[in-house]
Amino acid sequence: MKERQLHCIGWRATGECRPNGPRTPDQDLSCFTRVPSDASGYCEVEDTESGKRFRVGRRHCDSLKHDAVFRCSDAVGFANFPREAREVVDKALESAEFALPNVGSVVSEPRDGIVMVVYPKVVASAYATIVVLREILSCKLPIEIWFIPREMDPFPGALDTLLDLVGVEGMGEIYFHEVLDPLAVGFRVKVHAIYNSIFERVLYLDADNVPVRDPSFLFESREFLETGAMFWPDFWHPSSSIFNIHSRSLLWEMLDIPFVNMFEQESGQLLVDRRKHAVRLELVRFYAFYEPDYFDRMKLVHGDKDLFRLAWLKLRAPLYMIRTPPAVAGKVINRSFCGMTMVQHDARDPVFWTHLVTFRNTSERFDYVIDTYSAEPEFAKEQNCYGQRELVRVGIDDGINTFPVPSDQAGIAEELVHEEAVPHEAHAATQIAMSSNYTLPHINASAVKPRDGIVMVVYPKLVPSAYATIRALRDILGCSLPIEIWYRPDEMKDTPGALAPLQRLAQNYSVGDISFHKISSPVAKRFVAKIYAIYRSFFDRVLFLDADNVPVRDPSFLFESPEFKETGAIFWPDFWHPTSTMFGLHSKSLLWELLDMPFVDMFEQESGQLVIDRRRHAAPLALVVFYALHEPNFLVHYKLAWGDKDLFRLAWLNRLVSNAGIGLSDSFDVFKSRTYNLKGQEDEKDDVAAFEENITMPEHPISPFYKRGDGFDSSVSRDRGVMVCMHDGVLSMGLSLIRELRCLGNKELIQVYHCGEEELSASTVELLFSLDDRLEFVDACSDLESQGIISTNMTTKFRSWWIKPLAMYHTDVRHVMLLDVDDIIMRDPAVLRDLEGYVMTGTTFFYDRVLTKKKLLIGNDGGKLYLRKLLHEFDYARFNVSKGLNPSQHVFETFAFKGRSCHEMDSSMVLIDKERAGHTVMDIMLWFITEERFRFMYSWGDKETFWLAFELAHVPYSFSPKVTDSQN
């Protein structure tokens, strides 16, 4: 296309708010006069060679935003812009050798990876995103981090947090690239990074964009494989847009493409095959780097937000735009909603479960309206809110409702995540009769002004997270609150120098102290360490933060908030509430009887952050300590609470009066009576005293059902352990297995489970104690019989391999590795916990051989195949499994479900993280072995019990991809 030699004649005004309306010459303007944003008309230009005149920049009254700068002197360049874009595309298409930088052959295996761009203020966000990807989602995709050196120079060490991740075990490949192109600034850095990436197929993520699922699967999704490009919609569409992209926008003339009626693009995430779409990315680069920047000057698009879809549309290239519009997540206070976070979806979700639904997917698109507003006085004036403020406008009531919204219907669905404002009024302190001289450690009662500060607890793996959080507090948020870092020396000694990054950080800051405190109490392990740190803090008023909890605002204001001044305690809600809980905290829970308090219908607590005035709340904090340390610990034993998660709110809510329960012999009532005495400040302070430095209490259960030798190494952790089920008849094999484990370097606790004392002779016990100092015997049957969980007659039914799932139910070890005594191992099996499946689900199961006999899982149960009948008729409600029938994809792929094998799982080696499995899995496992196996022989021995319990509880699990082999 030949370039026309044009020059500007001037602005020609028209009426009726359309470019073809009647002329209004009295409003004409010169080429260099700024045209009002609400004017209609066009620029008249002339071809200097032919003398022909043309209309350029044809505008309606709303073709531009109010802040756009438009002069007809730009009309010549504006008119030539689509021609220059076409030349760039033609040049790329005509060259047989054209390819983007670092792109290999289309026929070679593509290299997939994640691309991120950082600058000082988003380093903390990038760190959090990477940690989530690696440690929580187990994503192994390599990551590129692009940055402009001159942006980092004013902030020495700004990249250190990310650089420190390189080489850290489990962090995978992370590469850093400097952006040296002087034109690559602002949003252009993103385009530059994608254009120059070393990956052929790129997932771009904004630094503050946190996935909730390992995004690796996107590269193999049907939509991406077919198109090579997957984009995500923004809130806005032509009927409701804050960016003015609609049918009358000047954008379409500039790009020389017809108006496209679709959602705008949200480019916080992009998935592009750079091999397939080199030409499209060349056009994006042209759009982004073109000078003068008409997109910005005339406010036609916002940054790079829509450049990718526009380039694809211009070249009519295939792309897949996610069909489900984004949801809004935020808070509700006094029925006033403030949306603060965008929630995106993937392409394949068939159902979206929401707490509150504004529109069904059958709604028309013009019903999908996202307002921008200030929600004063419920929210701060400076807080920008998105969504719709008034709940009544969208038909939301005060209840929590869930609706399945199919994604394959026409229209839209909006998700609002409801975060109910729960008042945490700490009336307990005034109701508890504490003695006037009782105070927590390190409280300065005479001080006029309280000392405020932040408390953290760290162990080696959390040091990088704590480092990032502190850097964010100091460098980004300007928080000068002093910080206490509490740690256990015995945990740190296994990782020499683990604390060094935090100690260097403490030396580098002149604002705000950072002090280090040892946790020496032997009972203050795992979640109890948090309670210990808060109980013994040197601050009067404490903000506790989990080490991986990164604030987005200086949290100092919390200490002066009216809510905190009034109550002295601020807590935060968890996702779960009595009608939807994975922890069993509902009205029928045994918890309320144990604590002798009425059921409280409220959200559960998320204790990753707590604000507490220790001067005002000594009593409930002492009660928290009591809950955590009481032995026997019924909260843990019966899985009534999850760690410390709800202990704080329960201590604050507890309103017992000290009378009737005292002195009763029943163990539950004894627990209650001791609670009364603690509240009455009589002499029972044993559990609280355990936090004083001169008192020690054992971590290992003290019970007649546990046996340990005189030389038992009490320092061994109960976080990880090996479980072996034995009787005298298999002593030689069990002894061999234990020796093999130790020779291969395994130093974990070994639990030898049995059913009744008669199964193991005194000589067997003595022999094993003499050979291993990290071994204990556990009589699960007698213990569970004493608790009434199984009957006396039932105990005899577990003197077989059926004891294995019973032992799994019983053990208090978190990461359990169950081994058969006849296992022959060539390597420490603890390495199995590093498998992707275990990292993702906390389980590793192994397949059994295929056996086609019509029994067991594929046996005839009342005229139906057992497994299928089980999935359909299982009493999900009994175990509070809310969704009912909801089989996983795995179960459909099993040979058993297809009727091709009566076996599925081999249970000679089973790995389970009991904390992640949860109590529902264990309760269903107990049902299988105490009820179901006597109704129908569903399994050869215990084999299928483990995976079936996870399947029915709807808890993810993982099988090793390796098939079973046989050795003769």
UniProtKB/TrEMBL annotation:
It comes from the Eukaryota. Pfam families: Mannosyl_trans3. It is a single-pass membrane protein; Single-pass type II membrane protein. It is found in: Endomembrane system; Golgi apparatus membrane; Membrane. One of its GO terms (biological process) is mannan biosynthetic process. Belongs to the MNN1/MNT family. This is Uncharacterized protein.
